[in-house]
Fold these 2 entries.
Entry 1:
Amino acid sequence: MQRFNAFTSSARAARGRSPRSVPHSARSLTTSVDRVAVIGAGQMGIGIAYVASKTAGVDVLISDRSASQLSKGLHFVDTLLGKEVKKGKLSNGEADQVRSRIRGARENGLEGGEFADVDLAIEAVSESLPVKQAIFSSLATHLPPHAILASNTSSISLSTLAASAVSQSGENRASQVVGFHFFNPVPVMKLVELIPALQTDPTVLATAREFAERMGKTVTQSADTPGFISNRLLMPFINEAILALEAGVGSKEDIDTTLKLGMNHPMGPLTLADFIGLDTCLSIMEVLQRETGDCKYRPAVLLGRMVSAGYLGKKSGRGFYNYDATPVPPPPRKPGLEDATESPAPYGSSEGDVDIGLRRLGGKEEQQ
Ligand SMILES: NC(=O)c1ccc[n+]([C@@H]2O[C@H](COP(=O)([O-])OP(=O)(O)OC[C@H]3O[C@@H](n4cnc5c(N)ncnc54)[C@H](O)[C@@H]3O)[C@@H](O)[C@H]2O)c1
């Protein structure tokens, strides 16, 4: 399989288009996307890179502050493609093409000129406001003037992120920022939630929508409010399940099974929290609580304890359930929480599934 091709114009060439001259005015925003950059090669970033190359057929440059996480992610793309070939879903040639369009960045940061030809950058780093603000400032400095600056944030205000999209030379690029919220696992989940910041230019919103559809996704649009549509509804539900566990209403298995079999949910809320990442769930609840000032969004104490203990869910090998053969010490306990993290059969453990593999990708040595 072909690897690490230069950030070629293969996608453009495949569609018979000539190279675009980069406009020098922020008014000349891109209306088509040939080259995508993904910042953050965790479970979401790798999934986004994979679908952008495979389904939308664009060139993808992916970067991460951790070189080992980046190489783990690229290796996972190879594994995923190998499985698609084995299942007869892709030919060897098609898999080679998908892989050849994805390249890992040489630098850990955005410096070095590698991003000078990007039409759309999708930030998918950890759910932390200061970390994302620094990325947006850097994107504003290093992306070409026509590019779109998108964030895969689950809950952070796009208007706040847009306000940090100011280049080192003082150019304000807030109008080029948009929320581009994928769901986990990206190759499987059909939705992209689009979130315009107050500052977003309508051309940016329209181009982002068109590109999400080229990635095979259905698009919904949400106002820039805490948690958007998706996590405003989902996270309080997950948090309530953790509060129920804390209160001893039921065991984790009984809580999950009740929702699965009684409400026809594909997986229980505690399992889902493990798959999303407990650190991500905590960050989202904190955003909801802080920005609304409403105590109904108070994160469960147990959720905070689990994150403090490093039990982040599937990506760290342990959350409410165990996903790793290696025994880990028990977390801090509260009365009534005795079985919160005991080992049990995790839900949906069929090896080789695209989604399970993507979730495992997060099993990295460097945690956020
Ligand atoms: N996990 C989900 O189910 C889910 C769903 C939708 C959206 N999101 C959002 O996607 C984003 C990423 O989530 P994830 O689950 O992939 O997290 P993750 O922990 O799997 O990956 C985050 C990656 O970002 C990298 N990173 C951190 N700081 C960086 C920096 N300054 N520069 C470059 N790389 C950096 C880390 O090394 C890591 O590889 C978050 O904003 C999250 O809220 C997550």
Entry 2:
Amino acid sequence: MKTPATPAGRVVTLTANPSLDRTLDLPGPLDRGAVTRLGRSSTEPGGKGVNVARAVAAAGADVVSVLPAPDDDPLVRALQALGLPLATVPIGTPVRTNYTLTEPDGTTTKLNEPGAPLDDAALAALQAALLEQARSARWVVLSGSLPPGAPRDWYAALVRALRGTGARIAVDTSEAPLLALLAAGPDAAPDLLKPNTEELAQLAGLPEAAVADDPDAALAAVATLHERGVAEVLLTLGADGAALSTADGGLWWARPPRVAVRSTVGAGDCSLAGYVLADLAGEEPAERLRTAVAYGTASAALPGSAVPAPSQVDRAAVTVTPGLPGHPAPAAAAPAAGADTH
Ligand SMILES: O=P(O)(O)OC[C@@]1(O)O[C@H](CO)[C@@H](O)[C@@H]1O
């Protein structure tokens, strides 16, 4: 496995619903109804696109994070302190706070607020800021839930508007915005979609276990995404790593090493960042997948929403094989390395 070249090209991320991520470390299993004395707690800038941007920036690549927030919001100040290039659209409502409860065995519980509502003017300003930044981009990453006020098919409208820029488009979302995106037709299909098994099941109209436990069902659901115009599907599989399926028939599975999981929050975002970084470095699909899983694994070993530096990412420890040989069911109970439940 050769050392990847330096990533070349600009990445733009959109986080329409950013967050401050407040992580509460529980001393034991969550005791519902009781008073718990907390150990460490911390607050980090978050939101899926923000996490992708932070990981891309940590790798030294050119990135800008587009998001709505008041100019003096703690999220903006935290990202400025990290030196992350920002294109913010000012709004009047503070950024939401999302809560993460982590238990000593790695179990992670997320409590996400709905987010600051965006009116039509804010949505138009956000789209304009995105298109302006995307003009010089190799990749545009649209990530996370949509805030109150955004139409559920907004990502579809953005993909259509972005097509003229020539940038490759990745989308990572769930529930209604995901369903609306895939229902919108091939002209709204992103180049890359990053579902986890829960999101793939939402798309297939099946319970999660039906695709998580049955590779044939998962592959059938992925095939329908290609039929709807999605070129590449990066399917994150939690403890089992990830699979990459390409519209020209390529299929690989990457298995992570086992590591002690601190927090799975942001592991999927870091996987997506790794994939994009490898693409910017000119890597072939199987190596893009390897890098994605290495980044997701490194993220899961870090606390809260922390993103890994390249020195913490071990690509050589990830095994990539064609197809889905001996595909085991993802661990249902205990989260493990690379787990992507959030
Ligand atoms: O509510 P959404 O937008 O679906 O997800 C938001 C969020 O859970 O995603 C990130 C982890 O992927 C966190 O930084 C953030 O709190």
